[in-house]
Design a protein that fits this description.
The complex is a heterotetramer, with 2 copies of chain A (260 residues) and 2 copies of chain B (303 residues). Chain A contains 5 helices and 16 strands. Chain A has a 7-stranded antiparallel beta sheet with strand order 4-3-7-1-2-6-5. Chain A is globular. Chain A is 16% helix and 35% strand. The two termini of chain A are 28 Å apart. Chain A is an alpha/beta fold. In chain B, helix 4 runs parallel beside helix 5 and helix 6 runs parallel beside helix 7. Chain B is built from 9 helices and 14 strands. Chain B is 31% helix and 19% strand. The two termini of chain B are 24 Å apart. The longest helix of chain B has 16 residues. In chain B, strands 3-14-13-10-9-8-7-4 form an 8-stranded parallel beta sheet. Chain B has 303 residues and is an alpha/beta fold. Classes of the chains: A alpha/beta (260), B alpha/beta (303). The structure holds flavin-adenine dinucleotide (2 copies), flavin mononucleotide (FMN) (2 copies) and FE2/S2 (inorganic) cluster (2 copies). One flavin mononucleotide binds next to strand 4 of chain C.
């Protein structure tokens, strides 16, 4: 059930270069049931910026009716968001979309959670859920550079965690795909979120042999499936009329389901 | 007395508020938020004879107090709209205005002839002004003679009144309005989006895959008001106004300008409850302004 | 090397930044804030043969991310501009672009012949697109043949290159641009304001005494970018771009679209230092984007 | 010397229905030398609302580098202004225009200060200055209704003070002009600020016999004289080309100087 609520800022802090962690509380949290869903936010009641911003849910605390997200303050909307202080409110529409299927991994299995940049956050709630189902989680998290790294300790607390940086300033020098190749090939499933290039590489390499779930990004209007801004072709009809909407059919798709 | 009621050709509206075409799909998504029967009417997404996938993504870009879209008339095609979408909407007590589009006159007449027979379709909205479609659609919206011809052709086959949606991207909007009135239009809807573009600072290329797109939202409201103000003084058919409406105050401004009812587009994206809210809040604003019935507002800027 | 320099017909610009006509008077007020010699050029307020008082007030109204104005070309007239304003500006090392307006061809030629002889006037900007003047001025900006004629006539008498300022209120901006190019224009400036209107909620009447006015500011930027993007691919004369510029990023976007230099209008009102700031900040943005010289940006969206 | 500064909010409080008193501090205060000048404000760094708002200077405290203004939070810009909290900053351009000529009244003279609604505030600094020059000040302040009345005590502390309300809910029932008529005609000078109708009435009645100074209001663009948004005809050439700008020649004019 999608809700629209002015939620209250519980905490806001910068946790890496231009990266903020924001916790909100409100009734809307009770509707959050899948990792990988997102919320659509408006941090102002003015006309500039006009549109909502889609941000993934990073972790959920039902007891406290709180959820946390992590975002990069880069453009107008996210910068405005980063100025919100404790006790102020933010207009939240959510939870939106279909998240990662936790049930696809069973007790004792090993799965890879592969994240790139601001694609990392939704993997955190996912990892917590998988872990509590007894799944063995391995995290491979890629960042541009050392200053951009966040949540290493949090992920490490849940399972083996590899950090890669594109410039080699921290962790493994290279891309997450390099790290996957270097691992022993004992995993059954990949859950991934990050830049399109990264998702394409993962789909290409592992889409055929493993269960692979990819969370896509697309520019959005409504965020709920009404405006057709965020469609992609389905893989079985790449030039035809059939489509999926990233906002309401996704953002998580099974590899091979849509054209990315 | 219902202070908000409006009578228009083919349309008995409970209130003057309807979602604008393309911004509300076929209503399914917004039905999660409020009862669709509450709406004055629903303008459904443009329907073409065949299904269309539309343009590549990105299809939207934000601008100052506005947005650009280049959806490219994606829609499931006439057959599916008639067999799936319109029947679904019959559960609600709300008249449907079917927005129809195409790239040649035969497209318009093909859709009009069939869709106008659906029981809940009470009017057609001829989209002769979509800026995001390559194949010649532009001429319909910018050349008065051509606009008149397509209007005439559709009127000849439609079972319900025909409203023509005007493009603001013309030198002389009054001339266009008069042409479609002469072609037999029962009403006008205006305005469609302004042609615009946004470039990406890093790549230097357009943000939209389609390069240019249609500008909507509060940014264009002054243009819409100006055009409706002009046109309403020169035609005798009613106008459904749109372009940047975001509040009750905006609705009243459009009525003052000369519109008889209004549609809300882009604002649905920032506030999914906007149509419902505006309907709830209108009576209070009328009280404040000392207006008994909404109809008193129509054209008050020039009357 | 000056990374910001631009060479245009008649104009050797230190940088591509100039205040837009009508938004900077004749420079006196802004000279309190920074050294005017810093500017690439100055586009002065429209000059007509005789003094004009302009329209009644209110002359401005705010809109979403924009504003409407209906100043009505108030100016002290040709004689005073030549005897008082232009001489005052000679104390600054900055080329002047004289914006000239009128209601008949003879008005334009009368002003052009004389003002183009002022030593610091390096180019003319033909304002054939002012939406706020009643007497027939509209035809110059909307009918290609008429625009061509006035351009030709002015070219025949002007001692300096002639830039023609295009109105966005037309169906086909490329056609207009080509017409004035054929008339001998040395360059284009675009865009002037969009025609708009705002109504007062209490009175139901237009906020502006002139009823309608010209819409400027960030709201219109996507329209400006789209038009410059189109026109720059179809003419071989340079374009000075304007419409909603508010930042360095906006400047670069206009250059990408195809402008060779830019003018800043409305933004001077919210930030009187805007031109100066943008000039200061441009080099840093070029560094960030890895651009050596600004000229590399011109037309990059379509090259 | 006009300055542009981000000034700091020292206090902000509501003092009547929709009426706020705001005190700002900064170097700009040092340039404020006349009562009746105004500042041009922008309370946001977004594009909506776009334009600055002209607000009169109500009182100046050079020692503390502070000034106070009083405004009605009515539209977009002023509502936004009213949300600004202590320690936040506001972009101020000022001081602008030409204020009330204090020197026109001499020691021992009696002068009327006539204000209507949000035209009342600039009279406060004026009154303080006149008082300190030994001028006898009488205040006649008109408001719509009881809830809109403000600064009665402040003005009463400086001189005789009459409050009129249009609906009779407080003070004298009627308009400020009624009050003037009822007073003994011993004053030499009127300083006034308020609705155009009121200023016109005062000009008509007293413009010929008394020294009358009126502060006008007009919609503004630049606020500094560059855009020609705020012009009015001069009284000696009411249909001609000569003009004054309310922002830079005014906002205070001598009665008979311009067409109001
Ligand atoms: C399903 C989904 C989940 C996301 N989760 C996160 C997250 O957890 N953390 C995070 O930092 N970012 C996330 N993003 C990306 C985030 O939405 C953009 O970074 C953000 O919208 C940019 O807004 P801005 O104000 O910074 O930029 P601006 O440049 O002001 O944005 C202009 C417009 O472009 C859109 N836009 C710009 N970049 C993107 C993008 N990458 N994806 C979609 N729209 C974009 C904006 O929404 C806005 O409409 C997610 C995106 C999607 C689609
Ligand atoms: C010299 C001068 C001094 C003023 N001093 C005061 C003061 O001390 N206290 C006070 O409360 N008000 C004062 N005003 C009026 C004040 O400027 C307006 O009330 C305010 O601009 C309205 O802004 P808004 O955001 O509430 O309204 P909106 O409706 O959002 O305003 C829209 C646009 O119209 C303009 N506008 C609306 N009303 C007026 C008006 N009455 N005068 C000028 N422009 C207007 C706004 O500036 C803005 O550009 C003064 C005006 C002037 C010209
Ligand atoms: C995403 C989007 C899709 C649109 N699709 C259509 C369409 O299919 N047919 C049509 O006639 N207008 C379409 N429009 C235009 C709107 O119906 C409306 O005329 C315009 O957006 C101005 O109103 P607004 O400012 O309230 O959005 C679309 C607008 C948007 C933003
Ligand atoms: C108050 C005002 C006065 C203007 N006067 C003139 C003018 O005299 N001549 C002219 O060619 N353009 C005039 N313009 C148009 C501007 O020069 C410019 O083309 C337009 O405002 C778009 O730029 P902007 O969005 O940066 O303001 C005026 C604009 C404004 C806002
Ligand atoms: S964002 Fe509107 S359909 Fe997905
Ligand atoms: S407001 Fe611009 S001249 Fe007065």
């Amino acid at each position: 059930m999608i809700k629209n609520e002015c939620m209250t800022v519980k905490s806001q802090k910068q946790i890496a270069a231009a990266i903020f962690e924001l916790t909100l509380s409100g009734e809307l949290v009770s509707a959050m049931d899948q990792p990988g869903q997102f919320v659509h936010l408006k941090a102002n009641d003015q006309l500039d910026p006009l549109l909502r911003r889609p941000i993934s849910i990073c972790s959920i605390n039902q007891d406290r009716k709180e959820f946390t997200m992590i975002y990069r303050a880069d453009g107008k909307g996210t910068k405005q968001l980063s100025k919100k202080k404790v006790h102020e409110t933010i207009d939240v529409l959510g939870p939106l979309g279909n998240g990662f299927p936790v049930e696809e991994a069973s007790f004792g299995e090993t799965v890879l959670l592969v994240g790139g940049g601001i694609g990392v956050p939704p993997l955190y709630e996912l990892s917590k859920r998988l872990k509590s189902s007894g799944v063995n989680v391995i995290h491979i998290l890629g960042f541009q550079t050392k200053q951009a790294v966040f949540y290493e300790a949090e992920f490490a607390g849940l399972g083996e965690t590899y950090i890669a940086t594109a410039d080699g300033s921290y962790g493994i020098h290279g891309y997450v795909t390099d790290v996957i190749t270097s691992l022993e090939n004992s995993f059954t499933t990949i859950y991934s979120c990050g830049p399109t290039m990264m998702l394409r590489a993962i789909e290409k390499e592992y889409g055929a042999d493993k269960k692979v779930f990819l969370s896509l990004e697309e520019r959005m209007g409504c965020g709920i499936g009404a405006c057709f801004a965020c469609v992609c072709h389905t893989a079985d009809d790449p030039d035809g009329f059939s489509y999926k909407k990233v906002c309401s059919d996704g953002p998580v798709f099974r590899a091979g389901e849509v054209v990315i | 007395m219902n202070r908000l009621s409006v009578e228009l050709p083919g349309l008995s509206l409970k209130n003057p508020i309807m979602p604008a075409s393309g911004c509300f799909g076929f209503g399914r998504e917004y039905s999660q938020f409020y009862e669709l029967s509450k709406l004055g009417a629903i303008m459904i997404k443009a329907t073409t004879p065949e299904p269309r996938f539309g343009n590549p993504t990105p299809r939207v870009a934000e601008t100052a107090a506005g947005m650009l879209n280049a959806i490219g008339l994606q829609n499931p095609g006439l057959k599916k709209v008639i067999s799936e979408e319109l029947p679904w909407l019959t559960q609600y007590d709300v008249p449907v205005i079917a927005n129809i589009a195409g790239s040649k006159i035969e497209d318009y007449t093909a859709v009009a002839a069939q869709i106008s027979q659906a029981p809940n379709v009470r009017a057609l909205e001829l989209n002769i002004s979509c800026p995001n479609v390559k194949e010649g659609g532009l001429a319909f919206g910018t050349i008065p003679e051509v606009a008149k011809e397509v209007t005439k052709a559709v009127k000849a086959v439609s079972k319900v009144p025909v409203y023509v949606k005007l493009s603001p991207n013309v030198t002389d909007i009054v001339e266009m309005a008069k042409a479609v009135e002469a072609g037999g239009a029962d009403g006008l809807t205006m305005i469609n989006t302004l042609l615009g573009m946004r470039l990406d600072l890093r790549t230097a290329k357009p943000v939209l895959a389609n390069r240019s797109g249609g500008l909507s939202g509060p940014a264009i409201k002054p243009v819409a008001i100006r055009m409706i103000h002009e046109v309403s003084q020169h035609v005798s058919i009613p106008i459904i106004g749109m372009g940047g409406i975001n509040s009750c105050e905006d609705v009243i401004e459009f009525l003052y300008a000369g519109a008889s009812a209004v549609a809300i587009g882009t604002a649905n994206f920032s506030d999914p409850f906007i149509c419902s809210k505006v309907i709830d809040e209108l009576p209070e604003l009328l009280d404040e302004l000392g207006i008994d019935h909404l109809s008193e507002c129509i054209g008050r800027s020039w009357r």
